[in-house]
Every structure is written in C-alpha cells, then in structure tokens.
Amino acid sequence: MAFVKRFLYLIVPLSVGLYFVREYFQGCKYTGNERLDDKVVLITGANTGIGKETAKNMALRGARVYMACRNLNKANAARDDLLNITGLPADKIKVMQMDLSSFRSIRNFVTEFHKVEEKLHILINNAGIMFTPFLKTEDGFEMQVGVNHLGHFLLTNLLIDKLKTSAPSRVVTVSSLAHMSGTVEFDNFRGEKGYSRINSYGNSKLMNILFAKELGRRLEGTGVTSYSLHPGGIVTDLQREVLNPFFVKVVHVLGYVFWKTIERGAQTTIYCAVNDNAGKETGLYYSDCAVKTPFGVDSETAKKLWEVSLSLTGLKQ
C-alpha cells in the first residue's frame, strides 16, 4: 500500500505536468466560427498533413475546396477520406492535378481552373518539399527553391486577376521557422554553384516570406491580402521522406510532448485564411495565430526577389 501511495504521489504530478507542457507546445487553437458559404478555396498539397487538415476545416465552414496535388491517386484517396469524415456532399471537395516542379503543369492547371470556377476567394500555398537531394525541376531550377517558391510565385500571379475580381480575398503562404537560416542566393537558383539540402530549404522558406510581403505591398488597396506563416514543429510526411526510420520513431516519441499535432499545426493557416482582424492586415508573418517578426526580411530584398522571379518564371514585368 505504501508503494502504491508513493507511486501515485510521483506519477500524478508528472502526468499533470506533462499535460501542461504538451499543451504549451501545441500552440494556438483557433476557435473563430466564420462561415465560408459560397466561397472558393484552393489549397496546394492538400492530400496530407496540415494541407489536408486545412481542407477539412475550410470545407466544414461551407467553402467549395479544390485540392491541387501532384499525385492524383493520393489526392483522391485523401478526398474520399475527408468526405467520409465530414459527411459533406461530393461537390464540396474537388481534386485537380498540378505539379509545382513544372511551369507547364502550373499553367495547364490554371487554364483548367478558369474553366470550372469564376471566383477564387482564398489561395493557400501550402505544398512544400524538404531536404531533398540535389534535383532539378522540369525548368532547370533547384528543386526546393523551384517548388517551394517559384512554383507558388507563378501560380499566385496567374490567379491574381481572379483573386481581385473575387475580393475580399486572401493569399496564405506556408513558410517555416527554418527561414531564419535562409538567404536569397540570387545567382544560384539552379543550384549549380553549390548545394546544401538544409540551406536550400531555409532559403526557400525565406523566399516565401519575402514573396508574401511584396505581394501584400503590390496588392494594397485591391481587396486582396497576403500572409506568410510558421505552422510550428509538426511530424508530417515531409519528415518521413527525409529521416532515417529510427529517427522518425525518436521524433515521434519526442514529438508527443514538444511537437504539434497536425490539427494544431493547421491553426495559424486557418487563422490567416478566415479571421476578420487578419483580413485588415497584409504582408505580415504569423506564428501561433499572431503577428511575429521574421528574421532577415527587408523591403528591398523582397522587391528584388519579385523582379527576379518574374523573369525566371517568364511572366511579364
């Protein structure tokens, strides 16, 4: 009996403490009940992780959600899962194919999207790749920068007019705390002057923030607002693709306390997409549903990145 008491005296405080520590690291939980009835939402990379969770949330708010994904089989399986979970009719969640590593695929996607939708109220640039070996996109750019930045840059610009005619509308770009290690290597978009998979990922995430900042400046007064964000530390398929299976297990054990669940990782994206106060802001960076100051971001670099990206993607100045 004495042993049981000692055990309880030890385990109960530890359990309570663990709960509060875990809850602290889970970050914000957005509780706003804004409706999106008759709104159109487009999410890249929505077949897994926080993209899938965001798609579910947007659909439950009444939006018609388009999942723009590279792999149609995986996307359709995710769609079926979401329809089963939500009980929503099939026309509330739709799948379209798009490969962000191909400018041709992006342009084809936009052409098809224009055929099926007159409006676009929320564009969520969620898709991303992480720590890949040195690869090039179809257009010859280093893969992480090409997919994470240039692909979304082209997609957003091709949809700008539709976003303007649908205003008030929003562009939400998912970045990462990894931007703190990033720089913009203007002379190395093709990765031929040296490549580090970690550095390139950080560079691409910094570009996301610079892009969102400059987009906000350029669209000021149009009714289109722009946001970038850090979703928090989350165990997603990105980590599973790059980590040794043993380290994946270690990350999951530590992640129970220190990493966010996928549901909580989607909260800042959801906040930026629907919150009324956020709708009065533009070009800012968010973490845990609040404005934060990003590292290494300045207006001149943002403007230069925009101009260089216009040239690299073949868009007119």
Automatic annotation (TrEMBL):
Q: Which GO terms describe its molecular function?
A: oxidoreductase activity
InterPro entries found in the cross-reference section: NAD(P)-bd_dom_sf, SDR_fam
Membrane-spanning regions, if any? none
- Does the UniProt entry include the keyword Endoplasmic reticulum? no
Q: Does the keyword Nucleotide-binding apply?
A: no
The alphabetical list of record keywords is: Oxidoreductase, Signal
The residue range of the signal peptide is 1-17
Looking at the Swiss-Prot or TrEMBL record, what is one Pfam family this protein matches? adh_short
Return the protein name: DgyrCDS5577
Protein species of origin: Dimorphilus gyrociliatus
